[in-house]
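During the reporting period, our protein records have gained a structure token line. One record among many is quoted in full directly below:
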Amino acid sequence: MTFIAANQTHRQVVGIADLKLSNRQGDLLVTYALGSCLGVCIHDPVAKVGGLLHAMLPSATAAMEKGKAQPAKYVDSGVTALFKEAYRLGARKERIVVKVAGGASVVAKGEMDSFQIGKRNMVALKKLFWKNGVLIHGEDLGGNISRTVSLDVASGEVRIKANGTDTIL
């Protein structure tokens, strides 16, 4: 059992094809190396619930069994799981603040991005949010750089680290 003091930050790493949620005020959710993957951060400022998804691929429809077994691997099933778990912890849809990062094209210089996974991930996310009436409050998408994303559960602050810069989204 780990005791975390009120003023101590507890870092929870969100791996690739993973999601984590928390309602502990000392938690910092972090994911590394977002290239074509998407990092979806949600935060309910009233319930003090935060969540972070690191999704790799746009849709689980082509691999339904894999989508059921590992929903966070896909944008569509991962976002659904993220929101459902946030609701279970007391979040409400109308209060949730959404910020997203990633969706880059990270291929070797001079090579074509034939599969365009980053763009396809962004399209899948925006379609899903549009269909469900969810607004994106901040984004750092596209380009050709890898990003590290962190979400402070207490404040809802989302930080993006990329190419030596640290910005608040």
